[in-house]
Write a structure and sequence with these properties.
The complex is a heterotrimer of chains A (293), B (276) and C (498).
Chain A (H helix, E strand, L loop, with lengths): L1 H5 L1 H28 L16 H8 L1 H33 L4 H12 L6 H11 L6 H8 L16 H7 L7 H12 L3 H9 L4 H12 L1 H17 L2 H6 L11 H10 L4 H25 L7
Helix pairs in contact in A: 4-9, 4-12, 9-12, 12-15, 14-15
Chain B lengths: L1 H35 L3 H6 L12 H40 L5 H10 L5 H14 L7 H23 L4 H9 L4 H30 L2 H6 L8 H8 L7 H36 L1
Chain C lengths: L1 H16 L1 H6 L2 E8 L4 H14 L3 E8 L2 H13 L8 E3 L5 H6 L7 H4 L2 E2 L5 E2 L7 H5 L9 E3 L1 E2 L2 E6 H6 L8 H13 L3 E4 L8 H14 L3 H4 L32 H9 L8 H13 L12 H9 L3 E7 L3 H10 L8 E4 L23 E4 L5 H14 L2 H13 L7 E2 L10 H7 L17 H16 L4 H23 L13
Parallel strand pairs in C: 1-2, 1-3, 9-10
Antiparallel strand pairs in C: 3-12, 4-5, 6-12, 7-13, 8-10, 8-11
Helix pairs in contact in C: 3-17, 19-20
The chains are: A mainly alpha (293), B mainly alpha (276), C alpha/beta (498).
Chain lengths: 293, 276, 498
C-alpha cells in the first residue's frame, strides 16, 4: 500500500486512459459476452437462456451462408492485401533512383485521401448494370457478351465486392511491406547478388523470410478488418441476391437495429470475436519470425 | 552488355506497369471529379464525353447538402485526434519513464485490448451510450474513438520515449519540476514527429469510420460524412452530378490533412511496420 | 457563509429566469417523420399551432427515408421511452407488434370525440374512413392515422407504347406479351428497384397473398362471441369478385393461426402455387440486373426512356412530373398509369388483385403512459387532420414544389389538387384494400423471406420451393406470435400477453 501511495502520481496520470478504456472497452465487452446468453431485447424482459442463442445460430440459414461467404471474402481480402502491395513494393524497390522511389511511394499512398465510403459508392456506380462504368466500357469495347448484372447476379455479387478497389494496392499494406523491404540489411542483398542469385530467387529466399513480421502484421490487420466490416456489403447489395453476399456482421447489425434482438446479436458478436481470436493465435503461432520489441 | 540492356528493358517495363496500376487506382477518383462538373442530363445521356462546358453549378447545391455532415466529421475527428494524441503521449510517457508496481501488467492489459474487435462491442456499447444519455451527441463518437485510438498511440509513444536521454529528465526533476511539467516541457516537444504521425493516422481512420456513427447517431444534424453520403445514395432521384460534387466536397478535409501530413503518416506507418 | 448563500440564491433565480428554463417548462411534442412528406407545410402548421397554444413546443425530427426512421425509432425506444418521439411516421414499423407491446396508442376513443378545429364534427367522420379501418390492428384497434392514400401500380411511357402499337394490359398474359415485344425492339420492359432500400416484393406479396387468402374468409372472419367480433361481420357476403365484400369486417387472428397450424390453410395449396407461378413469368422481363440496382437506378431508366414501364407507387407522381419538365424538350414523354392486371385467368380460387392502400404518410401515436401528454398530442393531430389544415398542407406543399404522396384522406382536401395531378392520381386506387396479413412490416419475417424472394424472382428457386419456405417461416413465426401475445387459440377469449 505504501508503494502504491508513493507512486500515486503515476497512477493518477494513467487515470484518464484507463477510465476511458474501462468505460468503453472492458465494460461493453463483458456486457456483450454476458448478454449473449440472454434474450436481451429493446422492450421486454431479458432472461438467461444459456446456450439457446448459440444453438439457434447453428440452425440459422443466415449464419450458415454468411460464414461461408465470410471465409471466401476474408481469404480474398488476404490475397488482395498481400500480393499486389508486395509486387508493387518489390518493383519500386528494384528501381535505382532514390528520388523516383520516393515519388512512387507517395503515389501509392495518394489513393488514401479518398474517404472509404466514397470509394464504395463509386464502385456501386461502376457496377450499375445499365449505366455503370464497367458494363458501358465492355459494350464500348465490343465485349457486350461479357456484360453482367454484377451486383444483381448471385454468382457474381460476392466477386464484385471482392473487386472493389481494383487494382488493390492498399496503401497501408504497401507501406508496411515496403518498410520491411527497405529494412533488409544491404549486405545480405549484396551478398546474394554477388553469389549470382536471380532476382526471383532472392525474392523468395531472402525477402519473403525477412518480411515475415510485416506479413504477419498485415495478415492480422486484414483479418480483423475483414471479419468486422459490413459497410461495403450493406451499401453494395444489402446481403443479396439471396444469401450470396451476407456476412455475419451484417446479420448482427440487422438483428440489432431492425429486429431489436440484442441478445442474439451479442451471441453473433461473441462468436465472431472467438473466430478472430483463434485465427489470430493461429497466425501468430504459424508465422513465427523476428520480433523486435 | 546484354545485362545492361536487359535491366534497362526490365526497368522500363516495371515503370510502365507501375504507372498503369497506379493510374488505375486513381481512376474512380478521377471519374468522380470529372463527372462532378457535368450536368446530370449529360451524364445520363452521354457518358463518356468530357464535359462540353465545365459546370460548376453542381457545387453550390452539393456544398449545401454535405456541409453539415462534413463539419460534423471534421469536428469529431479533430477533437478525437487531439484527445488521442494527448492521452497517448501522457500514458506513453508514464509507461516509458516511470517505475511503479504493476507497470508491465497494466501495459499488457492495455495492449491486449487491440485484439478486441469492434464487432463484440457494438451492441453493448450502443446500449451503454444510450443509458449514459450521450447517444445522439458528439460524445458518443468522440469518447469511444479516444478510448480505442490511444492504444496503438501508447505503444508507439512508449517505444519512442524510452529513447529520450535520462539526463534531460534528471536535470528537470532536480530543478523541482512536477511530473506534469516534465511531460509538458520535455516530452511533448521532443515527441512532436511521432505525435503528428499518430494524429494523422487516427484522422484517417476516424474520418472514414462508417459503422459506429451509422448505429449511434440518429439525429440528422449530427450525421457524419460517410453516413450522410450513404443515406444520400438511397434518396429517390439519383442526381449524379450533384452527388459526385458532394463526394468531392466532403473529401476535401481528408485530402488536405493527409497531403499536408503525408510525410509523418508514412513515417509513422513505416516505423510501426518495422517494429512488427 | 452568508455571501455564498446569497450568490447561490442569485444563481438559482437567474437559472429559473433563463429562457431555457421556460422552454423546459413547456409541453413538448416530438414528431418524427421522413423527408419528402409535406415537410415545409408541416413545419408551418406546427408553427401555427404553437401560436395558438404558446405553452406547447413542437419539434419535428426529419429522417431521410423509411429505413432510417425505423432505425431511429428502434434506437430511441431501446432504452428511454421519454426521449422517444410522440408521433412517428410508421410506414415500416410493425403496427401489430408495437401495439401489442404497448408502444403504440390505440386512438379509438379519441376518434369519436368532436374535433374543435373542424366545427366540432366527430373526428372520425372527417376521414374517408375505409383506410383507417383497413389498417386497424385485429380489425378493432385504430393505431394508424393515414394522411393520404397511396397505391402501387405501373407507370408506362405512352410514347413508346404508341410507337409499337401497344395497349396497357388487362390480363397477366397480355403484360408478358407486350413486354416480349418491347424486348425484341431493344427496350427494357419494366424498371423496378431490387435493392434493400426498397421492397418490390412487399407490395406484390401483399397483393398476391390477399388474392389467395380471400377464399378462406368464412373460416377466419370473427364469429359472434369472438373477442374482436363486430356487427359488420354479419353482413359479410362471400363474393370474391366484390372487392369491397370484406369492408368493415374483422379477422380473428387466433382462427387464422389455428387454420394454418392444422393445415386447413397453407401457402402450398394449388391455387397459391398457380398465383405465385404467374409472378415468375413476369420477372424475366424486369430490367437487366434489377436486383443490383436501387430506386434511383430504376427511376433513371424510366426517365431516360430506356425502360418503357416502371413499377412503383403513387408517391412518385409529383417528382416525375417535375423531372420531366426539367428534361430537354426532346427527352420528354407522355405517360400514364395502369393497375396490376388480372392474374386469375378464370381461376375460381383466386380473387382479383386489390390495392395496397395507405402506404403513404401515416402517423402513429407512441404510448408514453401519460394521459396529459396523449391529450396534447391528439389535440395537435386533430388540428393537422382537419379539413382546413389538410387543405393548407396540400396547397402549400405544391406551392413550394414538394410532392404529394397520394389522394388525401381528409374529405374535401382533394379540392386543392390541380387537375393534372388529380388525373394522374386517379390512375391509382379504386381496387379496394388488401387485408394486411399477420406479418405486415414484421421485420423478422421480411428479412428472413427476402433472400428467398430474390432467388425466386431470379428463377433460381422454383415456386414450390419458395412457397414451402414461406410456409415454414410462417408457421415458425406464428408460434412466436402465440408466445408473444399469450394466445390460447380460443377465439372467444381475449388474451393478454404474458
Amino acid at each position: 500500500m505504501n508503494s502504491l501511495l508513493r507512486h500515486r502520481v503515476s497512477y493518477l496520470l494513467l487515470l484518464p486512459t484507463f477510465t476511458l478504456v474501462i468505460l468503453f472497452f472492458y465494460y461493453p465487452a463483458l456486457s456483450g459476452i454476458f448478454h449473449a446468453f440472454t434474450t436481451w431485447q429493446a422492450v421486454g424482459d431479458s432472461r438467461w437462456v444459456g446456450l439457446d442463442n448459440f444453438i439457434f445460430m447453428a440452425t440459422d440459414p443466415f449464419i450458415r451462408h454468411s460464414l461461408y461467404n465470410q471465409l471466401l471474402l476474408t481469404l480474398a481480402d488476404m490475397v488482395k492485401a498481400l500480393v499486389p502491395p508486395f509486387i508493387v513494393a518489390e518493383m519500386i524497390y528494384s528501381l535505382r533512383s532514390e528520388r523516383e522511389r520516393y515519388w512512387l511511394r507517395t503515389l501509392c499512398v495518394i489513393p488514401m485521401v479518398a474517404p472509404g465510403m466514397v470509394i464504395i459508392l463509386m464502385w456501386y456506380f461502376i457496377y450499375d448494370p445499365n449505366v455503370g462504368l464497367l458494363n458501358q466500357a465492355l459494350v464500348g469495347m465490343g465485349l457486350e457478351d461479357l456484360k453482367r448484372a454484377w451486383l444483381g447476379d448471385p454468382n457474381f455479387a460476392l466477386g464484385a465486392i471482392v473487386g472493389i478497389g481494383f487494382p488493390w494496392i492498399g496503401a497501408l499494406a504497401f507501406l508496411i511491406l515496403y518498410a520491411g523491404l527497405n529494412n533488409i540489411p544491404g549486405d545480405i542483398v549484396d551478398a546474394a547478388r554477388i553469389d549470382g542469385a536471380s532476382k526471383f530467387a532472392r525474392i523468395l529466399q531472402i525477402d519473403l523470410p525477412m518480411l515475415v513480421p510485416q506479413i504477419r502484421l498485415v495478415v492480422l490487420l486484414t483479418l480483423i478488418a475483414s471479419i468486422q466490416d459490413f459497410g461495403r456489403v450493406l451499401v453494395m447489395t444489402g446481403g443479396g441476391p439471396g444469401y450470396a453476399t451476407y456476412v455475419p456482421a451484417l446479420w448482427m447489425y440487422e438483428q440489432t437495429f431492425l429486429m431489436s434482438h440484442f441478445g442474439y446479436a451479442s451471441a453473433i458478436g461473441v462468436t465472431l470475436f472467438l473466430v478472430i481470436l483463434t485465427s489470430s493465435l493461429i497466425v501468430l503461432r504459424v508465422m513465427k519470425g523476428d520480433v523486435e520489441d | 552488355m546484354s545485362k545492361t540492356d536487359n535491366s534497362a528493358l526490365s526497368t522500363f517495363l516495371i515503370r510502365v506497369i507501375l504507372y498503369s496500376l497506379l493510374g488505375l487506382s486513381l481512376l474512380p477518383v478521377l471519374v468522380m471529379v470529372v463527372l462532378s462538373v457535368k450536368s446530370n442530363v449529360e451524364i445520363i445521356t452521354d457518358f463518356w464525353s468530357l464535359p462540353s462546358v465545365i459546370r460548376w453549378d453542381n457545387y453550390p447545391g452539393a456544398f449545401e447538402t454535405v456541409k453539415g455532415s462534413t463539419f460534423n466529421s471534421l469536428f469529431v475527428t479533430l477533437v478525437s485526434c487531439t484527445g488521442i494524441v494527448f492521452l497517448s503521449s501522457l500514458s506513453g510517457f508514464v509507461f516509458a519513464r516511470h517505475r511503479f508496481p504493476g507497470r508491465e501488467t497494466l501495459f499488457t492489459v492495455l495492449i491486449g485490448l487491440v485484439m478486441l474487435p469492434q464487432v463484440l462491442l457494438l451492441v453493448p456499447l450502443f446500449v451503454e451510450v444510450k443509458s449514459m444519455g450521450i447517444a445522439d451527441t458528439y460524445w458518443a463518437l468522440i469518447l469511444p474513438y479516444m478510448a480505442g485510438g490511444q492504444i496503438i498511440g501508447i505503444l508507439l509513444c512508449r517505444g519512442f520515449m524510452a529513447t529520450i536521454p535520462q539526463a534531460l529528465f534528471e536535470s528537470a526533476r532536480l530543478d523541482g519540476a512536477s511530473e506534469f511539467q516534465v511531460y509538458r516541457h520535455i516530452v511533448l516537444p521532443l515527441s512532436l514527429p511521432i505525435l503528428t504521425a499518430i494524429g494523422i493516422i487516427n484522422f484517417h481512420g476516424i474520418y472514414n469510420d462508417f459503422v459506429w456513427p451509422l448505429m449511434v447517431l440518429q439525429d440528422q444534424d449530427l450525421k457524419t460524412f460517410a453516413v450522410a453520403i450513404f443515406e444520400l445514395s438511397t434518396v429517390y432521384r439519383f442526381e449524379y452530378g450533384l452527388t459526385f460534387a458532394a463526394y468531392v466536397v466532403g473529401s476535401l478535409p481528408l485530402v488536405v490533412v493527409l497531403l499536408a501530413g503525408m510525410k509523418y503518416f508514412v513515417r509513422g506507418i513505416t516505423e510501426g511496420g518495422v517494429k512488427a | 457563509m452568508t455571501p455564498h448563500l446569497l450568490v447561490s440564491a442569485c444563481l438559482v433565480v437567474c437559472a429559473a429566469l433563463l429562457p431555457g428554463a421556460e422552454a423546459w417548462a413547456k409541453e413538448r411534442v416530438l414528431i418524427s417523420t421522413v423527408r419528402g412528406f409535406y415537410n415545409t407545410a408541416m413545419d408551418e402548421i406546427a408553427a401555427q399551432y404553437m401560436e395558438l397554444h404558446p405553452e406547447v413546443e413542437i419539434e419535428i425530427n426529419l429522417q431521410p427515408d423509411n429505413f432510417t426512421i425505423t432505425r431511429y425509432y428502434t434506437a430511441n425506444m431501446a432504452a428511454d421511452r421519454a426521449t422517444a418521439p410522440d408521433i412517428v411516421h410508421g410506414n415500416l414499423l410493425g403496427i401489430d407488434e408495437n401495439y401489442h407491446a404497448g408502444r403504440f396508442l390505440a386512438v379509438n376513443d379519441y376518434l369519436q370525440r368532436p374535433n374543435p378545429y373542424a366545427d366540432n364534427v366527430v373526428w372520425m367522420d372527417l376521414f374517408d374512413d375505409d383506410l383507417i379501418r383497413s389498417m386497424a390492428v385485429d380489425g378493432i384497434h385504430y393505431c394508424v392515422i393515414p394522411l393520404d392514400f397511396c397505391d402501387a401500380a405501373v407507370y408506362y411511357n405512352k410514347d413508346i407504347f404508341d410507337r409499337h402499337g401497344l395497349m396497357p394490359p388487362s390480363t397477366w398474359d397480355e403484360w408478358i406479351a407486350l413486354s416480349t415485344v418491347l424486348e425484341e425492339h431493344g427496350i427494357l420492359p419494366i424498371a423496378v428497384s431490387g435493392s434493400t432500400q426498397t421492397d418490390f416484393t412487399g407490395w406484390i406479396d401483399l397483393m398476391f397473398e390477399d388474392a389467395c387468402m380471400r377464399p378462406f374468409m368464412p373460416m377466419i372472419i370473427a364469429q359472434p362471441g369472438d373477442w374482436n367480433y363486430v356487427e359488420a361481420n354479419d353482413r359479410y357476403v362471400h363474393d370474391l369478385s366484390d372487392k369491397d365484400s370484406d369492408r368493415y369486417t374483422t379477422i380473428n387472428p387466433e382462427r387464422l393461426i389455428s387454420a394454418f397450424l392444422d393445415g386447413t390453410i397453407s401457402y402450398q395449396m394449388p391455387h397459391f402455387v398457380d398465383a405465385y407461378a404467374r409472378f415468375q413469368t413476369l420477372t424475366p422481363h424486369f430490367a437487366f440486373g434489377f436486383l443490383g440496382t436501387d430506386q434511383a437506378g430504376a427511376y433513371n431508366l424510366f426517365l431516360t426512356s430506356r425502360a418503357a414501364m416502371w413499377q412503383t407507387g403513387s408517391w412518385r407522381v409529383g417528382s416525375l412530373m417535375k423531372d420531366l419538365r426539367e428534361l430537354p424538350e426532346e427527352m420528354r414523354f407522355d405517360w400514364a398509369v395502369f393497375p396490376f392486371p388480372d392474374l386469375r385467368d378464370g381461376h375460381e380460387d383466386i380473387a382479383p388483385l386489390r390495392g395496397v392502400g395507405g402506404v403513404g404518410h401515416q402517423f402513429c401515436v407512441v404510448n408514453k403512459n401519460d394521459q396529459a401528454q396523449h391529450d396534447r398530442v391528439i389535440d395537435f393531430m386533430m388540428y393537422l387532420y382537419s379539413p382546413e389544415q389538410t387543405a393548407y398542407l396540400i396547397r402549400r406543399t405544391l406551392e413550394v414544389g414538394e410532392f404529394i404522396q397520394g389522394m388525401p384522406m381528409v374529405k374535401g382536401a382533394e379540392k386543392e389538387l390541380p387537375d393534372d395531378i388529380l388525373a394522374k392520381l386517379k390512375g391509382f386506387g379504386g381496387r379496394g384494400y388488401t387485408n394486411p396479413g399477420l406479418f405486415l412490416n414484421d421485420e423478422e419475417h421480411d428479412k428472413r423471406i427476402r433472400p428467398w424472394y430474390q432467388l425466386y424472382a431470379l428463377g433460381r428457386v422454383d415456386v414450390e420451393e419458395f412457397l414451402a419456405e414461406k410456409q415454414a417461416l410462417a408457421i415458425e413465426l406464428m408460434h412466436r406470435v402465440i408466445a408473444r401475445r399469450g394466445f390460447d387459440l380460443d377465439p372467444t377469449t381475449e388474451d393478454k400477453p404474458l
